[in-house]
């Protein structure tokens, strides 16, 4: 039986690499062809069947809440977790959100542009055995060394443990709540740090996505996706 799955959009970052573009606008609200980065994520999640979204916010948080609202235009529920700027990092921010999330749940960065179909991740989650499943892409020019490798059983392995093809994490994953069992509420910890010990246990899986994806982390990359969407 198909289960309902919720999603968390990570939107609490300052976006310092965007320079003046984020002086008065939080990065998730930067527009790509008339639509904010975070709206692109919401619409793709909704089209895949997600009906509950949690968004963590910090820098210029009220602007995000005012523009996005609480989900009515999409017929879903959106709730917000407010954070002091730079307080919890990605892993700590997710740990605070667990009471409002399904198990498992989708995680997506607010600042990526992609054609990825989240329904594939929802389908995978129905019988996932790993604690997290990461969507990877071939390394873009800004991250040629990559983040992770995969073994023959689709387990994520540290790239330092393998000579061969590495891949870049897209900012998209599905996670089980038990992944955060050792993270206390209020702790500042990155999501990759949470994964690390479980990677060593071969409890984190992944797959490679071969299509459009961009981490909109700089004005140059924003211009690139603006020309391509």
From TrEMBL:
Name of the protein: Nucleotidyltransferase
Record keywords: Nucleotidyltransferase, Transferase
Species in which this protein is naturally found: Cysteiniphilum litorale
GO molecular function: nucleotidyltransferase activity
Gene designation: mpg1
Domain Nucleotidyl transferase intervals: 7-226
InterPro entries: GlmU-like, NTP_transferase_dom, Nucleotide-diphossugar_trans
């Amino acid at each position: 039986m198909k289960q309902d799955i919720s999603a968390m959009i990570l939107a609490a970052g300052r976006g310092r690499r965007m320079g003046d573009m984020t002086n008065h606008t939080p990065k998730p609200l930067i527009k790509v062809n008339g639509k904010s980065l975070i709206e692109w994520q919401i619409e793709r999640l909704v089209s895949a069947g997600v009906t509950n979204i949690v968004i963590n916010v910090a820098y210029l948080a009220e602007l995000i809440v005012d523009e996005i609202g609480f989900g009515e235009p999409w017929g879903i529920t959106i709730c917000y977790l407010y954070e002091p700027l730079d307080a919890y990092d990605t892993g700590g921010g997710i740990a605070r959100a667990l009471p409002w999330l399904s198990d498992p749940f989708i995680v997506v960065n607010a600042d990526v542009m992609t054609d990825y179909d989240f329904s594939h991740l929802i389908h995978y989650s129905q019988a996932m055995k790993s604690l997290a499943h990461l969507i990877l892409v071939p390394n873009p020019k800004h991250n040629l060394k990559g983040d992770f490798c995969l073994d023959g059983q689709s387990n994520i392995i540290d790239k330092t443990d393998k000579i061969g093809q590495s891949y870049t994490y897209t900012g998209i994953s599905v996670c089980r709540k038990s992944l955060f069992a050792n993270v206390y509420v209020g702790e500042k910890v990155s999501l990759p740090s949470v994964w690390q010990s479980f990677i060593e246990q071969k409890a984190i899986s992944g797959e490679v996505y071969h299509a459009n994806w961009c981490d909109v982390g700089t004005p140059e990359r924003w211009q690139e996706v603006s020309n391509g969407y």
